[in-house]
Give the backbone structure.
Amino acid sequence: MDRDQLIDLTRRALKLARDNTTDLAEKQHTVDAREYTSRERHERDRAMLMSSPQLVGYASELPGPGSYCTKTVMGRSILLTRTTDGTVKAFDNVCLHRQSQVVTGCGTAKRFTCPYHSWTYDNTGRLVGVPGREGFPDVTLKSDGLTELPATEFAGFLWIALNPGTHLDVAAHLGDLADELDSWGIGRWSPLGEKVLDSPINWKLAVDTFAENYHFATVHRQTFATIARSNCTVFDSYGPHHRLIFPLNAILGLEDVPEDKWDPFQNMVVIYALFPNIVISVTIANGELFRVYPGTEPGRSITVHQNSTPLDLSDESVAAGAQAVFEYAHATVRDEDYRLVEALQANLESGAREKLVFGRNEPGLQHRHMAWEEALSRL
Ligand code: FES
Ligand SMILES: [Fe+2]
């Protein structure tokens, strides 16, 4: 994002903070409680995710030719590799023999040997070795291989399509946001690992917790709210995606500072809601990524939380500090947001009330749900 745009957003955020208000949607909005509880909606949600490009990690997780990483996406184990020419490839991490996972974790390897009976694949997915070859007359080395999924590196992130036959067009998917996302460089920062939350909440309830800061003053009273404004958000939508600016309390200090002296990043957090299940949070030292997936039933979801940093992690104390910040952010989501909405999920499932209300002051929340509705109507 260029400085002019950052200054413009800071100006908007400062005005909202000064006026003690927030960007507002046109009207209140209601959604049906069954959106979070019905099996039918759950299956349609899963189909929506299956048919959408999936951001699965940072480009820096495949730092060079020969590197690989594994991901779990919608319950599926995926192997991503960077081949000799730098191309990113993705495969179902499922052995052709008896479907063992071929590899776990991440690292550097040009060949992968299945831990069960040692069938071996190269990093373009081709089967290159079968011990006891005479047992498998119908298997052809080099032409048989792992099931390849469409994959690419775009805007600094790794993307896949879960349906092997799909055309993966991330540029079309991101539209006007592509250059802006790329410009942060967070996908090229050093990755700090993954933390997984397997939670008794619908995946949309998990996503909802990131779509407004109206709850900061109560839920995060002792944590985020000590540094960030509550119920104060700059909102902009980009097709099915949106961007929120959460101003920090310090922003009011800019009143008496000339604009050319402003350091926008000391005064706000930038949140991207990417359709349909991705949240990215950018600050000066953290590029957090939340990948949220429907679980095996409507009331369960998996959140994979990642973080990246521009800091030099070769210094041990810097690395330890970066991990501590990641742990703090993760604990806040786990122990404050998700803990609270677990009881909310139970209320929804009890059938006590039919509707939920989204306020005019929750435009991100409204936008998320409208984008999902729109996509579901086209499935
Ligand atoms: S399952 Fe992979 S070699 Fe047997
Ligand atoms: Fe929160």
Observations:
- The first strand starts at residue 29 and ends at 32.
- The CA atoms of residues 91 and 148 lie 4 Å apart.
- The two ends are 34 Å apart (CA to CA).
- The chain has eight helices and 20 strands.
